[in-house]
Amino acid sequence: MTEAWEPTGPGGTIHVRHAPGAPSWVSLMVHGLEATQEFYGSLFGWRFRPGPQHFGPYVRAVLHDYQVAGIGKLPPDRHLPIAWTPYLGSDDVDATAEAVLSCGGTVGVGPLDADDAGRLAIAADPVGAVFGVWQAAAHPGTGLTDVPGTPVWYELLTYDTASVATFYRSVFGYTEEPVVLADLDYLLLHIDDRPVAGIHGVGPHLPPDQGPHWMTYFEVADVDAAAQRVTELGGHVVHPACNTALGRMVTVADPEGAVFSVVSRPH
Q1: Pairing relationship of beta strands 58-63 and 4-6 according to DSSP bridges
Q2: Which residues does the UniProt record annotate as the domain VOC (predicted)?
Q3: Residues 122 and 151 in one domain
Q4: Which structural domain, as residue segments, surrounds residue 42?
């Protein structure tokens, strides 16, 4: 199955379905569900609708009537890292989970059904970066991108690209494009000749309390204003704003510590 989208709507891209391997959804599990909704609603203009309750209370964030992300509530006795988790698309999540295991990764949750929305698994690559796998049914995934308030890029921060590139290529069928710059260890991952994510080898510069992890980038109109708004809402800036090939960006954390980046891209 290829990805289908329409370059229409509120100035962005409407997604009808996502190609296998392409990031198709992003979700966050927190302790304070209502407070987290208030934070992201104020930051991105999201509204919320109930989603599947298979893990407990769960809502889907809505922007311009399109579902763009999910937020769930952790049980009180679960003390897991609070982190945005991207879900990579699959036509057969059970087969993908088997491939994860055979290629040296681990599967921590599932595969299991999320009501009639689809089927999922939560996995980790051989060096520990956690990601989800999503087989869409009634819920195709992120419905809108390329406007402020939507996820627009996903990047794996890891020790080096060589240690995990084979894993992701074998499991999801990516083709790779090295970014050739001095002292930069970076691969673009392609599906159908289109870049869908990146792997950034940062060596000893990984945060010691995080280890390898996936970073989600959300589009905003003004990065500096968004960073200020994050602090006003109880979050904090992790890395100051800078200009990158993707656009001007800043890495921040919400009040529960979930780290994400906001970016303003040239259009």
Answers
A1: unpaired
A2: 22-136, 150-265
A3: no
A4: 4-144
